[in-house]
Amino acid sequence: MKGVSILILAAGNASRMGRVKQLLPYKNSTLLGNAIKSALQSKADTVYCVLGANSERIQNEIIEPQVTFIINKGWQSGLSSSIVRGITYLQRLKEEPKAVLVMLADQPNIDANYLNILIKLHEKNNEIVASVYNKTKGVPAIFPSTVFKSLLEIKGDKGAKLFLNNTSFTVLHLDMESTSVLKDIDTPEDYKALM
Question: Are 152 and 92 in contact (CB under 8 A)?
Fold first, then answer.
């Protein structure tokens, strides 16, 4: 068994942004490029990225041999479908990872240091570890392989959040003093504020 694999979710069509959000310029790269860089700089063993809408265009612009792109043809059925697609892919590998860290492509303030804190907390306790903002657990979050089967049953756009806030699992959490670290970039206003 391998250690921790990172699964970057980047399959949406960014309807509120009105442009291909993954490719928006950010820090001499793009929003997705920045997420990939943070993932590769972390202590994780392998990095995967789930694409859906505009996948060909994104793959043409983001050339990163250390990242395996996974295509989610059912991306329109929500974020959960990308998690399910990613986990299914990882389970078919010769060596399934011990845990998967799920992160989003549109949280540009998440850096390698933050990801490493999550990984360290998971390695110490071998439990699910989630980020917390507004008293709600969410991603970035780490899921040990013992819950992969349950993860495959999530549905819709809030699947991971419902899963993480379900009392039937032990979920350790990392409270952030500043919510800006976990801020999603969803609208042109969000992007303007970021820049």
Answer: no
